[in-house]
Amino acid sequence: MKQIKSAFLIISVSLILVFFSACKLTQKSVEKENASAYLFVYFTGNAKTDEAVRYALSKDGFNFYALNDNKAVINSDEISTTGGVRDPHILRGNDGAFYMTVTDLQTANGWENQAIVLLKSSDLVHWTSSKVDISKVFDGFKEVKRVWAPQTIYDAKAKKYMVYFSMLQPGGTDIVYYAYANKDFTALETAPQQLFYSPINRSCIDADIIEKDGKFHLFLKTEDEKDKGIKVAISEKLTSGYVLQDGYVDQTDESVEGSGVFKLNNSDTYILMYDMYRKGKYQFTSSTDLKHFKVIDENVSMNFHPRHGTVLPITADEAQRLITTYGWFPNGEISEAQSEAIKKNNVIVDLANKTMLLPVKNGTDLKNFDPEFKAKSGANVSPLGAQDFSQKAVQYDFDFGSLGKTTFEVKTVVRNNPSLTGYYADPEILYSNKDHRFHMYPTSDGFFEWSGDYFKSFSSTNLVDWTDDGVLLDFKKDVSWADAKAWAPAAIEKKIDGKYRYFFYYTGESKIGVAVSDNPQGPFTDIGKPLVANKPNGITRGQIIDPDVFTDPVSGKSYLYYGNGFMVGVELNDDMISVKENTLTVLKPDGTFREGTEVFYRKGKYYFLWSQDDTRSENYRVRYATSDSPLGNFTIPENNLVIAKDPSQGIYGTGHNSVIQIPGTDEWYIVYHRFTVPKGIEMGRAAGYNREVCIDRMFFDEAGNIIEVKPTLEGIQPLKT
């Protein structure tokens, strides 16, 4: 048995006194007298770091906010045999102590396991733990394949804590068993016995028992391939006699698991929640009779993505203890700072040190700045109004009413990266000789699995302050041959018959399209069909995406480049909306090429830049080669890295760039995207479609080699105009 020490365990004498008074409470007394908050105990996914116990708090049972910045509150390596734990269930015992059970399983090693973990606490912070390997303790279960989702309930008749869980024996199905824990909650003192088995359903897992009107309601997931969902079995006895009821209580056709039922404080309403694990979301439903349930997702919010957890009503003192120990900032109670000057996606909240960094836009007056924290009913923030942030941080007190209080040191700093407000990627930039402004054309990002279906344009005179010029091409309205996957545009200005024309090349449904306009900000008119719809002969891998367009200042000819997994270059006809097929060339950079070709010309050299790795990878980066021709052979410098991640600044996934030269100068800038800062590195696959556009200065050495660019949070200073 081990004593688990959570982070930040410096508890004051007053909190210790609170702890001794609180641990006398039973769940009924909490519900009747002093329940003012809810604790959600959960894990977050299948990665090793995800398989750990986490905490979140709520004032109403609907809106939950993660404690400890959604990080683990108990070290899985210390308590488990596998290094991972899942399916946490928490109970306030009849004796006032807290009991937790978890599945001892790290799925990186497969889905079979033999152990569960029993934990006990008197304050929700310090936990003792014991591993129980069913295969080693009980002779009849030496070959058990899996032991999943343990939960605990107090058996008033036996005056013991009953632990119940599903187990799979060789050649059998998942059956719900139960056993009694010993007095210290360190072991199971009785052999597992069958609690529930359904002859109708192939397997039954994730059992959850709640008592109502003298009857025990056992919620469970059925696993038959043709009959999946959450059902209820009811009995007048805790340990036997459960009768499976007809129909399902989950209110979705999606795959579900991990049902949990809890009663709202001082109410007749019960909440049934369950994990829609294939969708990565939770669904909440409500009922007063545990028979008929109604979806209430519109009332529910979370600033985290839980997997299979449980909710426990707690007191205000208990909530304050957890806040003091782990730290939090519930943006739903005290809204995030609302000032339009703040780059809200990039706010950094350090719960451990109780600091907050508010990055603001260029031109913000730091001597007289109001973050505009907004308080909901029952919550307060001080000070109010404008403060002087120019020399030091300002202390803010946040009072969440029944959820407790906390104080943060709030600092404000001007940061010009990201350049655009919101999620955008794959930026293209040009300078228009017609209106003497810079124009930016990015992929509209932040859409699940890169499903965006429109492009916007932005303009600036100084590369820092950007104006949103609106949608320039909308697939739903403007493009007949593509519905989604509006990616990676390129654009060029061309003077034709004395007039400036603008050509916008883009990816749609893994084909290359082109649209035309008389103005750089659009709107653009699509030509009505793909410009490129097929791969070159002999190319079987990759995708037709990521166009780039370049006009050779030497010959005046224009070229189109594209490809993922291969690089193609082809000359455009004078109309700029068709290609000279006989010039199509499969270009051959080195093995680092993935996508995102960018071509420019400087002092007699043609520079070819490309992105290496995958946009979902933190190691997404830019490399380059040079050539003496727009379609010629490549010379690859010994060090051809242009830009890469900088973990010291929390910058990752720097890639898919364009390059801009300030007219009439040898001043160059690289425009690229990165993972959103600071949360991108924690988002997994989703980091690849929650990206931000940045700009940094690019320099060359005397030989014309690109000097590796260091990505910055500060960005560039405005150009002098």
Automatic annotation (TrEMBL):
<dbReference type="InterPro" id="IPR006710">
    <property type="entry name" value="Glyco_hydro_43"/>
</dbReference>
<keyword id="KW-0858">Xylan degradation</keyword>
<keyword id="KW-0119">Carbohydrate metabolism</keyword>
<dbReference type="Pfam" id="PF04616">
    <property type="entry name" value="Glyco_hydro_43"/>
</dbReference>
<dbReference type="InterPro" id="IPR023296">
    <property type="entry name" value="Glyco_hydro_beta-prop_sf"/>
</dbReference>
<keyword id="KW-0326">Glycosidase</keyword>
<protein>
    <submittedName>
        <fullName>Beta-xylosidase</fullName>
    </submittedName>
</protein>
<keyword id="KW-0378">Hydrolase</keyword>
<dbReference type="InterPro" id="IPR052176">
    <property type="entry name" value="Glycosyl_Hydrlase_43_Enz"/>
</dbReference>
<comment type="similarity">
    <text>Belongs to the glycosyl hydrolase 43 family.</text>
</comment>
<keyword id="KW-0624">Polysaccharide degradation</keyword>
